[in-house]
Amino acid sequence: MPPPTPGPRTLYDKIWDDHVVHQQEDGSALLYIDRHLVHEVSSPQAFEGLRNAGRPVRRTDCTLATVDHNIPTVSRKNFTTTKNFVEEPESRTQCMTLEDNVKEFGVTYFGLTDRRQGIVHIIGPEQGFTLPGITCVCGDSHTSTHGAFGALAFGIGTSEVEHVMATQTLLQRKSKNMRITVDGKLPEGVGSKDVILHIIGVIGTAGGTGSVIEYAGSVFREMSMEARMSVCNMSIEAGARAGMVAPDEITFEYLKGRPLAPPTGEAWDRAIAYWRSLKTDEGAKFDVEVNIRAEDITPTVSWGTSPQDVVAITGKVPDPSTVADPTKRASMERSLKYMGLTPNTPMEDIKVDKVFLGSCTNGRIEDLRSAANVILAAGPDAKVAPGVVAMVVPGSSLVRQQAQAEGLAAIFTRAGWDFREAGCSMCLGMNPDQLAPQERCASTSNRNFEGRQGAGGRTHLLSPAMAAATALTGKLADVRKIIGAAVSDESSITVKNALEFLTDEVLSPPTPGGYLGDTPLPAADTPSPTRKFTIVKGIAAPLAIENVDTDMIIPKQFLKTIKRTGLKDALFYTLRKDPVTGAATDFVLNRAPYDKASILVCTGANFGCGSSREHAPWSLNDFGIRCIVAPSFAEIFKTNTMQNSMLPVALSKEECLILYDDAMACKELEVDLEKEEIRRETGEPIKFKTDAFRRHCLLNGLDDIGLTLQKSELISAFEKKRTENWPWLDGFAYIKEGKIPNAGITKKGAKIDW
Ligand SMILES: CC(C)[C@H](C(=O)O)[C@@H](O)C(=O)O
Ligand code: SF4
Q1: Residue 60's domain spans which residues?
Q2: Which residue among 121, 140, 425, 449 has the greatest number of ligand 1 atoms within 8 angstroms of its CB, and so is best to mutate?
Q3: CATH of the domain at 660
Q4: Which residue of 81, 169, 420, 740 has the smallest Cβ count within 10 Å?
Q5: What is the pTM (predicted TM-score) of this model?
């Protein structure tokens, strides 16, 4: 095993050191992955890849699947089959494909008839699948949520999903250590959502780029686990690879007795002893430190189309004429136009049409309690304001059940809210829960991108308490005016303990897994010329937008495919098609010669931020774009492009502007990976830097999975050590004792108690 990071170590250093299977000479490392969550949107192509290569899922005992994004949130009382239940054909195909895949590969699955079904990031912690000190991944950007347990948890694209399923490892480069400390006392009416929105407002959506954030200070120490999850969840909106909070007594208390956590007794004691060591050492070095005073945080709400566009609820819509940077000013003007807002309008004057309480950020029981408390405080006759539609979508079926048992569901329905079944729902509207064009929504979710909740829909992000206050007043509302000092993440309406809801009937166990132990793995496949990137010469399309998010690159309706191709027309769909007539707009990629562009030059930073959807590079590739130039890239997007033999080139803003001018003048550019330079038509080269290992793979068309499989002996050796040191990580901690606790595939005709 490679030596640990020298000197005093951070929490991130420790988890990293404990997972290195192999340290490469170029500085990257093969990292072992302890937990893999799978959902229907980012997995079909990965399973197909495994099938085509004849590879099994290496650790079915460390993999857990569910359906969340596509499913309708209408009552499941009359559920018979997924085929009958999911009406929209492409969503249905995706859900049924997952059902087929989990059966074929023997992966444990919480399907629509299982009470443990829910949003991946809610069910992992709920079941004790997420544990301190682990590495946890999912084909989903909000995997950062699980960092609340002191885990290294991050989102990946579909190619990496396949890599993890085949090898239980990922090739990673170590990120920078960043610490955000919030000390002091939060003012009245301020909760965890306000804290993270405020942080993103301060550091920006690219503020955490290249870093893993550790949240430290009294404010996080005092937070409940659920509040910590809401904070870590949105680390991705801050651009970070992951976010984490060191585990403590609050963490252990939350985990104790959860079905997939180590059982109490010797296993639990051993686990706790290890977990207690997971703290940043005194004197450990952070590359970036941010300090925020708790007293400066107010109830916060977003005004624009990026999560960094936030302001205090008592504030006003900002004025672009006060912004000097032209790209920034243009982005702000564009946001305000999209949002239908006039500068200097008081936030509290903004009327809403819908209120959405749910998502992996705020769909947990404490979120529902916090919103219900506001309704209660407004009086027994409090009702949703006339003309406003308010919906609660619990994050999991267990949360839903608990909310019913605690009487929260009744509080919501009495006040005129629609209390629905669990899923992602209107957080991104892949199911029928969507905003109509120009509808305005107060939402407890995490993204306010253009079209996020429905084409043309307008999103304001806020906390559950603020969402409840907004539903009552019909305008973005300051919750303090209703409830004063009583707002907190954890309310007192608890009639039952969460754990009571976690004992579920044991259905059939999963098919014996693909755990290969010491069995030799298939050899690497041969390099493929189609995977090569050497030189790309051609027209470059100019783009002057900041924070181009992957929702903008490819909207959600195109994520329902189970293929990697056929996405050419989906690229920048909302910018390329008139929403009313459906005719082509004059967006740059619709105009000659840019409709044949093979390079994209963007002058705005943080290209590809947001969702981990690999559909973004797939659609760019289908269009013919092989290289993207920008001042900076979001990390998951960057990896996803290279997994598809495309090249992201980060240059200084000034260099981007030079190439942008060339692109505007329809001049061709030549991107040479071997020489690491972009040649202008004048012959003048602009140099860039790439990761040596990635360059090698791209130049030679090498496949990551094939390369990793050559290290199968090292992986097996690591697994042996893992079993000795951290035995609770094998088989959900139970398999060895012969008690496989979960459902696997739903038994046909099993009685469902809804
Ligand atoms: C569909 C999935 C890949 C995506 C993500 O990665 O975040 C989704 O969960 C989202 O929130 O946009
Ligand atoms: S952000 Fe929204 S769509 Fe993505 S996983 Fe969370 S709830 Fe689902």
Answers
A1: 11-176+247-278+710-734
A2: 140
A3: 3.20.19.10
A4: 81
A5: 0.93
